[in-house]
Design brief:
Layout (H helix, E strand, L loop, with lengths): L29 H7 L2 H6 L12 H11 L6 E6 L5 E5 H17 L7 E6 L3 H12 L3 E6 L4 H10 L2 E6 L1 H8 L11 E4 L16 E2 H6 L15 E7 L7 E6 L2 H11 L8 E4 L6 H13 L3 E5 L5 H10 L4 E4 L1 H10 L14 E4 L6 H11 L3 E5 L9 E2 L13 E2 L5 E4 L9 E2 L2 E2 L9 E5 L14 H5 L2 E2 L2 E10 L5 E6 L4 E3 L2 E3 L1 H9 L4 E11 L3 E10 L7 H15 L7 E4 L13 H9 L24
Parallel strand pairs: 1-11, 3-4, 3-5, 5-6, 6-7, 10-11, 10-12, 12-13, 13-14, 27-28
Antiparallel strand pairs: 1-2, 8-9, 14-15, 15-16, 17-20, 18-19, 20-22, 21-22, 22-23, 24-25, 26-27
Helix pairs in contact: 3-4, 3-5, 3-10, 4-5, 9-10
Bound molecules: adenosine monophosphate (AMP).
Adenosine monophosphate (AMP) binds next to strand 14, strand 22 and strand 23.
Length: 616
């Protein structure tokens, strides 16, 4: 079951000279780190609640540092629209989140009850997340650009008891649907006074600032236990309703260990994760992992803009940067000259997640930013990074890297219907190198989701023959590097070949005129399916029949006629999720006139993330 595509292996490996690194990486010897690692050992690096009362992410992320004398250290540095900054120390965060927990207690919000947020990346959001943990309640962040229906649907599915939001967002997105949310008892507005004393209060809401000023921080953090629910993250299903993935306090052991190995966090780092906490990356690695490691984390309150981002990287002396392929492609599109003149010498490590990282982007990092980009792989359900490229390890551009210490990954064979092959209760594994199978993980790591809220059967179906099945297809080379092929649903079957859209897209992006590409299969009476590409051009290139033929010819030369796109359309707006993933299933549904399925996470075509100005 090979794809028959040479694809990314054509890019030479990027080798490392660890001796020249400014900081010695946490993971130096991959095999030794895997051999010596255990999750219990990772748990021992955590403090646990004082008096052995349990484990609470809020304590590990914040109060622990205060207890150990690091309260004055800068925890979060927010970069405002005008480029100015405001900071919260670990001590400030401990105090503010303690007050937030107190407010929840005073409102009678109990353990396990759900607190939602619909906020931009403002300090209140971070305080609310940590305060919710400290109260023993469960946090569910929503992306502030969601429309009223996705907001209503998630609040309803998650039985949201409290919502923290702004006046404007409440008015536009929640007030119209409030009547249909009987479980939603309290709406806390972070700007209830609307910036002026004479603005009338919004009916049915409370003024968070006033409530915070009336209470003292909680004296005792809730004695949550490792298996108590801490976070609820909605992830979109390919069809039907979004799924609420449940994560527990024990997940912090994985955030700690993966932050150490895959992001190489050291206490002196200035770390910038560009993801919004509305997505799991923005919570696990925009809040929890950096704070647990006691670093200073940058939060940009604005949206992607090439010049702004270079200014932040340089001006804030960012040392570790965790971003996404969609953002990197956007910077590539903006042109290398935009990076020129910015002093990026503080930067020592760049990582990316969320989508396949085209080899082109890995190498672009090396050429333009002075460092290659390290791809890593995980999903909402895994709660933390599972497969990664590490600072001390050579990069094979186009590969996701190797499994984290403590993580056992494998490829499970699939039958003709795409179902995992199970024999005598055991999954049949694909062991030949460079052969495709479904990426699977051995259950048991601390940040593994513990369920889909109220959907026991859907959860059960994710496991078979002793493995958690990820729904992604991948290959592994002879040295244990994993290579992403595609989501199970996105793979194309053409004349007996199984074709991963990513390899075709990456090849198209090597054409000098192509900025971005999305590839799908469309039905064909002879081949079953043929490959169709949707291509966005770089500035300065116009669609034409000649260019279309040129790009197809270019792909053919590299991929062969069986795999190269037969059809190619130019587009200016590839459909993407708000977190930047190309929605191939939507391209396909639109192409074939099929139902579009769940589109609640779809980026509005009129306002792509890069240009959006809809600050709450
Ligand atoms: P979500 O849970 O919504 O964040 O989406 C997770 C999915 O994103 C994975 O199952 C993959 O299909 C895709 N994904 C995440 N990271 C990578 C990566 N490094 N390479 C390829 N696909 C990725």
């Amino acid at each position: 079951m090979t794809t028959g595509v040479e694809g990314s292996t054509r890019w030479p490996a990027i080798t490392k000279n660890v001796a020249a690194f400014p900081v010695q990486p946490n993971l130096l010897d991959y095999d030794a780190a895997r051999r010596d690692f255990s999750w219990d050992q990772a748990r021992q690096a955590l403090a646990g609640l004082p008096g052995g009362r349990g484990l609470n992410i809020g304590y590990e992320a914040v109060d622990r540092h205060v207890a150990e004398g690091r309260g004055a250290k800068e925890a979060l540095r927010f970069v405002r629209a005008d480029g100015g900054t405001r900071s919260l120390s670990y001590g400030d965060l401990a105090e503010a989140s303690g007050r937030f927990a107190s407010v929840l207690r005073s409102l009678g919000v109990g353990r396990g009850e759900r607190v939602f947020s619909l906020l931009g990346r403002s300090p209140e959001l971070y305080v609310a997340v940590l305060g919710t943990f400290k109260n023993g309640s469960v946090f569910c962040p929503l992306f502030s650009a969601f429309g009223p229906e996705p907001v209503r649907q998630r609040l309803h599915l998650g039985s949201g008891r409290v919502l923290v939001t702004t006046r404007a967002l409440y008015r536009r997105k929640v007030a119209p649907v409030r009547d249909s949310l009987p479980d939603l008892r309290h709406v806390l507005l972070v700007d209830a006074d609307g910036g002026g004393e004479h603005v009338p209060a919004e009916p049915g809401t409370l003024d968070l600032a006033a409530l915070l000023s009336q209470v003292d921080p909680v004296e005792e953090i809730a004695d949550t236990q490792p298996e108590d629910m801490a976070l609820l993250h909605f992830t979109s299903g390919t069809t039907g309703t979004p799924k609420g993935a449940i994560h527990v306090h024990d997940a912090v052991a994985a955030h700690y260990a993966t932050g150490r190995f895959a992001l190489d966090l050291h206490p002196d780092d200035v770390y910038w994760c560009t993801a919004d906490p509305g997505w799991v990356t923005g919570t696990s690695y925009g809040i929890i992992a950096p704070l647990v490691h006691g670093v200073t984390a940058i939060v940009d309150e604005e949206e992607l803009d090439a010049d702004r981002w270079y200014r932040i990287l340089a001006g804030q002396h960012v040392t570790i940067w965790y971003t996404a392929p969609t953002a990197l492609r956007m910077l590539m599109k903006a042109g290398a000259e935009r990076a020129a003149g910015h002093d990026l010498s503080a930067l020592r490590f760049i990582a990316s997640v969320g989508e396949p990282l085209n080899p082109e982007a890995v190498v672009w990092g090396q050429e333009v930013l002075g460092l290659p980009v390290h791809d890593n792989w995980w999903q909402t359900e895994t709660g933390g990074i599972m497969i990664a490229n590490y600072p001390a390890m050579d990069i094979r551009p186009g590969s996701m890297g190797r499994p984290l210490p403590g993580i056992e990954a494998a490829l499970v064979a699939r039958d003709a219907d795409g179902k995992a092959v199970i024999n005598d209760g055991q999954a049949v594994l694909v062991t030949d190198p460079d052969t495709m199978g479904e990426l699977a993980l051995r259950p048991g790591w601390p940040s593994m989701f513990r369920g889909y809220l109220n959907e026991e059967e859907r959860y059960r179906r994710c496991f078979a023959g002793g493995w958690y099945l990820t729904g992604d297809l991948a290959k592994r080379d002879g040295d244990g590097y994993f290579w992403f092929v595609g989501r199970g649903d996105d793979v194309i079957k053409s004349s007996g070949h199984l074709i991963g859209p990513f390899e075709v897209e990456s090849c198209l992006m090597e054409h000098p005129a192509v900025a971005e590409a999305g590839v799908i299969g469309v039905p064909d009476p002879v081949a079953g399916e043929v490959v169709k590409a949707f291509v966005e051009l770089k500035a300065g290139h116009e669609p034409s029949e000649d260019l279309q033929l040129d790009i197809i010819g270019f792909a053919r030369k590299r991929l062969g006629a069986a795999v190269a796109p037969r059809l190619l359309d130019f587009t200016t707006t590839l459909p993407k999720t708000r977190s930047g993933k190309i929605l191939r299933r939507l391209l396909k549904a639109r192409e074939l006139g099929l139902p579009e399925g769940d589109t609640s996470t779809l980026e509005s075509p009129a306002a792509p993330a890069a240009a959006r100005q809809d600050r709450p």
